[in-house]
Amino acid sequence: GENVEQHPSTLSVQEGDSAVIKCTYSDSASNYFPWYKQELGKGPQLIIDIRSNVGEKKDQRIAVTLNKTAKHFSLHITETQPEDSAVYFCAASTGTSYGKLTFGQGTILTVHP
Amino acid sequence: DADVTQTPRNRITKTGKRIMLECSQTKGHDRMYWYRQDPGLGLRLIYYSFDVKDINKGEISDGYSVSRQAQAKFSLSLESAIPNQTALYFCATSGDRKETQYFGPGTRLLVL
Predict the structure, then answer these.
(1) CB-CB under 8 Å, B90 with A105
(2) According to the model, what pLDDT value does residue A68 have?
(3) Which candidate among A43, A57, A71, B103 keeps its CA 20 to 30 Å from the CA of A105?
C-alpha cells in the first residue's frame, strides 16, 4: 500500500520568514495530494491540494509543489504569521482508492512573533 | 467543521469496557470515515463507509467495529477497550469530490 513520509516533525520560524514542509510517497499511482492544517482542539482542515497533472499551485501565502519523478511534494508558506502555528499533514490518494487518503506523520509549525 | 459533529468530545473509560463514539453530519455526504490520531503517527484509517450498506476495514480495524445507522450517522465502537486505544479519534466525510474530506472536532479517549 501507499506510504507517506513527512519532514520535519517540528519546525520553528520567526514571523515573516518562510516555512517549507516536505513529503515523499511510495505509490507511483498516487495522483491527488492534499495538505491539512490542524489547530489546537480542532479537526484537520484542507488548506490546499494538487493533482498529478499540475506541478505547482498557489493560494495567497501558501503554495504546493509536486515532483512526480522523485515522488515528493512540498508545502511552502511565505510571510508566516503567528496564526499559521498549527500541525500540518500531507496526504496522498490514488484514483482507484475511492477517496481513501494516506497521511504523513504531521509537522508541528511554531511561528514566533 | 460545524457540519460534522462528534460525541462525546472527551471520554475516560476503564480497560474492558465497551464504548461507542458517535458521528453525525449535515453535509449530505455519502462517504464517512473514522481515523485515529497518535503523536508522531499522523492519522490512520480505522473504518470507512461509502453508503449505508457499505462498510470497509481500514489499516487498523482490529479491536474496533462500526455501524452506519443512516446516511448522516456513523458510529465507532470499542468492544473491550484497552489502554493502547487511548488516542484522539476523528470522523470525516466526503461527497461528490470524494478525495476532499471534512473532519469533525475529534473525541479524546483515555482508557485506564
Answers:
(1) no
(2) 92
(3) A57
